[in-house]
Design a protein that fits this description.
The protein is largely without helices or strands and 193 residues long. The chain contains no helices and no strands.
């Protein structure tokens, strides 16, 4: 058991660990908890600080690892979440739940190997705002939204837009092109070309 008490006048980190052995862990936790959280952090005093910060400072070292690696090999088939992000307070209207930015590499790479599960499921209770938006103001030869399938056993629609309401008055699909160069609004080809 270890208890560390940092007072307001200490002027130093409550816990500092410095390591120099390149092939050994800085911290190794062997967890035996069952009904209690293994590691827990809680605060009510943070203002401009960050709850947890991980940084790889500018370096010429060839870093081939991951900043954060989460692996779950548990066989339990009950409903649970490998990772859960929850913004709970309705007054936090300026909060972004998940933010990602890449200045060099690919932003997201998602792989779904379960043949009978959805890859992405979005349930939106949005009413007056757009559910999703994509801004591609710098596109040149790239495609804004590309869907491709090489499956020879595909028997359902590759792309479906469905309005199930019997009283909705909105347009199901709206396509608009304001180009003055007479570009095609829609190009449809039922061939390999």
């Amino acid at each position: 058991k270890l208890h560390i008490n940092q007072t307001a006048t200490d002027g130093a980190d409550a816990l500092y660990i410095g390591t120099s052995d390149g092939d050994k862990r800085a911290i190794n936790l062997v967890i035996g908890q069952e009904t209690m959280n293994a590691v827990e952090m809680a605060t009510t005093s943070l203002t401009t600080g960050t709850m947890m910060s991980m940084r790889y400072e500018p370096s010429t070292t060839a870093f081939e690892g991951s900043m954060l690696d989460i692996s779950d090999n548990n066989q339990h088939n009950g409903t649970r979440k490998v990772m859960s992000l929850v913004q709970e307070h309705a007054d936090g209207t300026g909060t972004t739940l998940l933010y990602g930015r890449s200045d060099g590499g690919q932003l997201f790479d998602l792989i779904q190997n379960a043949p009978d599960k959805k890859s992405i499921s979005l349930v939106a209770n949005t009413t007056t705002s757009n559910v999703s938006e994509y801004f591609m103001d710098k596109l040149t030869t790239g495609t804004g939204f590309h869907i491709s399938s090489d499956s020879d056993n595909h028997t359902s629609n590759l792309f479906s837009i469905i309005t199930n309401s019997t009283s909705a008055t909105a347009t199901t699909l709206s396509i608009k092109n304001i180009s003055a160069t007479n570009q095609n609004l829609v190009s449809i080809a039922n061939s390999s070309s």
